[in-house]
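Data availability excerpt. The first of two example chains:
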Amino acid sequence: MGFSAIDYLVLLLYLVGITIFGTRFRSSQRTVRDYFVGAKNTHWLVISLSIVATETSTLTLIGVPAIAYANYARPEQGGNFTYLQVVFGYIVARFIISLLFIPAYFKGDLLTAYELLKMRFGVKTKNFAASLFLIMRALAEGVRVFAASLVLSAVLSASLPSFPSLWLWSIIIVGLLTLIYTFEGGIAAVIWTDLIQLVIYICGSLLAAYELLHLIPGGWAQVVAQAAPNNKFQMFSFAWDLHVPFTFWAGLLGGTFLTMASHGTDQLLVQRLLTCRNQRDSQKALITSGFVVLFQFALFLLIGVLLFAYYKFFPFITPLASNDQVFLTFIVQRLPHGISGLVIAAIFAAAMSNLSGSLNSLASSTTIDFYRPLINPRESDEHYLKISRWFTASWGIVLICIAIAARRVDSVFTAGLTIASLVYGPMLGAFLLGVLTRRATQAGVMTGMAVSLVFMLLIKFMTAIAWTWYVLMGTIVCFAVGYTVSMLTKQAAAPALAADVER
């Protein structure tokens, strides 16, 4: 059908509307605390949905359906529902974080996750972990911005095939519009725009699934007939193979450690936990978000299976350059006018919610962990608020540049997760040394992080081990090396933050 004037109007209304809505929160930002953690008066359910929206990027919306759509030689590599095994780990991790990390965060008046490491080990450890976060988050988010550009590029190319550098203009549009309202509104704008964006992309995905089901001749019966012989509904694989990503063991163990790191040590999501009124609300927000994530991943995988059945009846005239394009191609070419624009707006919603959270978290760590203590420690709060906004703008430019450089990435979904997973192991190991042990020292934990990071780079570039194992392996190396070095150096350590019991 192609993208029509009505679709462009729907998309334009969304982009302009969400930008204007986000900028209206500027008046509530009076201090740097307001800008980064807000007034702590937002209901925990709103924050829970903001967590879901923040961890759901364009990588998820275009990458997860592509995983279920594709054909693989082995079922545990994808092409079915086996990715849900990883999501089960996501839920387990949320309970562990609620018991282990959240109480530690609420013992202090913290603005970033890495201030916890400062309290336990000292400034050098905090700076090391915060530096890893800034590098990892910038690279991973740059890939996500590029993924969002694929959406707009696919839309524009349908009606403007001769327009040069569509992908470049797509990156600039997504990046700048998100930057405007994040620059102005701070964390309050991020949380409330997240809520709106989550509603839009869930509704858009449900509409796409509904249309797919009705466009397939024979409806659900034919979906089952096409999908079942190809193991599209398989959910579990108990194979023991470190080279495939979606086994039960890789999913449960790998998914648990991945989420312990992403939601327990990454400022992008820890920042949401710190905006809650109290520890109890923070725990409720985090655990509830896990079950919402399970629902939406099941929905996205179902869309992939529906796409597989649909294109059995209506094959592509021109083969796709990659599976990542399958959902976008269907939206632009096959959905009715108006609905197509709404679903594209939904994918933009996921992209912008993730990007806005990353910009604010990058700015918060830069300001609180580096600028204020190391460069300008005695300025007024008004100065820190002003510089926080300019750090937001600076990171926006950096992410746009990284996105432009990421255009040669093969699979945007696995690339983003792989980048994060390489760093998450050392970071999670450091936090576990802080909350589980009394004897770990600054020298030990920094050595553990450095060795773990080198180890993970070797694993990435010299082995074929699946990315779902990365965080678990990196965490074990960091914890083991850090604790061993701490024992050998025999330095006195501060009490463990989590409990008053020798472990």
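And the second chain:
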Amino acid sequence: MADIMREQQRPIEILLIEPNATDAEVSREAFRASPMPNRVCLAGDGEEALRILRRQPPYTHQLAPDVILLELNVRRRHGPEVIEEIGRDCFARKIPIVVMAASEADIAIARRYPVRARSYIVKPFNVESVPKIIALTTDDADAIEQAAAEPTAAERELSEFSYIVSHDLAAPLRHVTAFSTLLARSLGPDASIDQIAYCEHIQHATHKCQAMLDEILAFSRAQQAYMTIEPCDATLLMEMAMLQLSAEVHAAGADITIEPLGKVSMDSPLMTLGFKHALSNAIKFRLPDEPVKINVSAATHDGVWTVHIADNGPGVALDRQEKMFQLFYQDEPEGAFPGVGAGLAILRRIVRRHDGAVRFVEAERGACLELSLPDRAMPCLTHEAA
């Protein structure tokens, strides 16, 4: 253990996710009493923990933790959900997680959860437990990343369910649309205003439902498609995505600037689709009577390639940023913006299949979408569908 202490060039950064104030103070006191230099950042619930890990305001300058201590019964975001979110983030997936529980019986229950935890500990722990926790930071991070990349059973089931639903519901929906049209014709010129309105409402609802089914199918394809990972010119893929949106770009009078993005290992068709949804989102959510301006830039730092898509639109409130990636999420009045709210969900699915992450980050004006992928030199190979 003395060797570990000598190797430490800086304090160990610890993220403590603990809703109980008393237990949190006891844990912090154990770390304060330890001879190993450390800093503890406290999160009172799952949402706050994810904001800290994503460096969202007011945590934009927070250092990344070396180890995470998590109370499984944390508020707002349940513990397994928090661990699952961490596993999907290419920044955070290598961070070891220690699950805390009140008793050995609770730990036995916690081990049954299908989550990736490195260790379990009964709380409140004492200063003797601290070296064991800190020792986890020296373990093999590559093994952690490989385990985190494995798809969960829930993801596979969701993909299969989406594919079945999108196909099996399409036929009866077409029948509703066709027969509502026949009904409107059969009423003839004697139809009342209400009858005409009812038929129009049915047709409008079925058209929207069909659009949603189409997006479910697109989401399923993004999940199930085979991937060929090879070095790609990201600038070219972004330009191809922009060309596919020519009509939308022209209608919005959008001025899109694409800076050199470099070469990154990715699946070309899937990532082009992802870029298309990212640009489409920036075009759709615009201020009225103001030309759309979008700037796309990229940088590589610490083995992570990051692209920013910044716009001059209305922006996204902090409490809505994560919700924007939910399938069919829309909190604006119907018809305020085109689409059914699936583009960003599909984009996130594609990025996660590349072991990456996507999120909104702080911007001086408008919104800024950040896509991050591992910057790895990778030979051509084919991944089967997750």
